[in-house]
Amino acid sequence: MFHCERSFFNHLHGLISFLTHSRDHDKSTIRSCEYTSRVDGMKISLDSLQVVESIARRGTFGLAGNELHRAPSSLSYVVQKLESDLGIRVFDRSGHRVRLTRAGTVLVEEGRQVLRSARELEDRARRTEAGWENELAIATNGLVPFDALLSFIPSFQAAISHTRLRFSHDLAGDCWQALFDNRVDLVIGAIGNPPAVHELSIVPVGDLKPVFVVSPRHPLAATMEPLACSAPARVKLVVASVMRPMSVY
């Protein structure tokens, strides 16, 4: 029994030593890979993606060179370096026209999205430098039917297609607050006095004249019009807001 127990612990000790050594070796390998990744950086550049995409689309290095205004030998160097850096084959050159490998197909399909995003990023940066907004946040309220604004959206997008429109529906009194808090850029249908905001541009669009209304079951509904000024004083009323003309912006 003692011999068996001693043999068991000897095997257990050996197994633990092996696992510990393997774990330390794996950690060392991981740290080495992480360090190499940090030093080497990205191995795929936008230029190499553009070269590979053009070759795949045109079918030959010569046609791609004409499109990119570069010598075919320079394109061949870019592809060979990319294949060497990634450890893959991008093209099958055995035929008259080059063909994408499976890895090359993935590279081109995903690369086209990267190139598209890069071009959009360049355009946004130029537009921002020129003073254009990427997004215009607009607050409206129930005073302005949203259907009345829909007809203006196509005209706006035709003139400024790169600016997104984001609408929010706020209560009448919250529109000014949204503008004051910089949550929106434009308010349509705001009522009352505007807040003291620096460089605030205001364009009046009309006046809002409150109308005195009652329920058909209210005692005043049976009173002959026009109502005398003393008529509302004889019944109970619930006033939702102060009834005075207000400007709409």
Description of the molecule:
The structure is a single chain. The protein starts with a helix and ends with a strand. It folds into three domains: 1-41; 46-130, Arc Repressor Mutant, subunit A, CATH 1.10.10; 135-207. Mean pLDDT is 75; it is low at 1-39. A three-stranded parallel β-sheet has the order 4-3-5, covered by helices on one side. 50% of the residues lie in helices and 10% in strands. A hairpin with a 6-residue loop joins strand 1 and strand 2 (99-100). The chain has eight helices and seven strands. The longest helix is centred in the first third of the chain and has 39 residues, at 2-40. Keywords: DNA-binding, Transcription, Transcription regulation. Belongs to the LysR transcriptional regulatory family. InterPro entries: LysR_HTH_N, LysR_subst-bd, WH-like_DNA-bd_sf, WH_DNA-bd_sf.
Features:
WH_DNA-bd_sf; 8 helices; three-stranded parallel β-sheet; 249 residues; transcription regulation; mainly alpha; Arc Repressor Mutant, subunit A; 3 domains
CATH topology name of the largest domain: Arc Repressor Mutant, subunit A
Largest sheet: 3 strands, parallel
The CATH architecture classification of the largest domain is Orthogonal Bundle
Q: Give the CA-based shape.
A: rod-shaped
Number of domains: 3
CATH homologous superfamily assignment of the largest domain: Winged helix-like DNA-binding domain superfamily/Winged helix DNA-binding domain
Q: Helices and strands: which structural class?
A: mainly alpha
